[in-house]
Automatic annotation (TrEMBL):
The keyword Nucleotidyltransferase does not apply. It comes from the Bacteria. Residues 6-73 form the HTH gntR-type domain. CDD domains: WHTH_GntR. Keywords: DNA-binding, Transcription, Transcription regulation. Gene3D superfamilies: GntR ligand-binding domain-like, Winged helix-like DNA-binding domain superfamily/Winged helix DNA-binding domain. It comes from Novispirillum itersonii. This is DNA-binding GntR family transcriptional regulator. GO terms for molecular function: DNA binding; DNA-binding transcription factor activity. PROSITE patterns: HTH_GNTR.
Amino acid sequence: MPKQTPTRADFLRRTLEEDIFNGRLKPGDRLDEQSLAQRFNVSRTPVREALRQLSASGLIEVRPRQGAVVSVITLPRLIEMFEVMAELEGMCARLAARRMTEAERQSISDVVTEAEGFAEQVDLDSYYINNWKFHDAIYSGSHNHVLEEMTRSLHHRTAPYRRHQLNRPGRVHESLAEHKKVVEALLAGDAEAAGKAMYRHVNVQGDVFADFLSTLPTGYLKG
């Protein structure tokens, strides 16, 4: 089947997703159709479709008389999302340890090797992109399409918050060490160890979670 050419709405959605994931658009920011149409030099039709897709994924919400805004998540809901995220990613890692091909194992090893340079330079932007590649490789490595879709969807919704976790001093090096433990288990084919390592990596709690919340700008969360 020939590969479909991305539509303008697809391009706009991906661009706005990146703006949200990279913090250029913050929770609570308004997304005005006319302004976006002018920015991208398109009609308002693809803008509306892109916003509809973003709304369906939970990254934005449409409010009466306000239009579309980047979603603001309540603290209890954010905690619940991270709890579920940890379970889903742990499941992905367990399956990946059993199902990854040799090429996939080599690829994720290369991703972690690349991350070492970014961590050493404390290059947060490059490390974040690498971090996305790391997690995505494990989702794919699970070879379970339903699980992949569910995990990626929730990862997208928590992405703006997960990115800010890297702002905590020393967190990048901690994250890299956690990634290495996951990969060690994956390469050994140890499903139980891989699942536990990934669960601990994602499930921020206690003092770690308090430190994480302290990195979020005012307005990111509602009580």
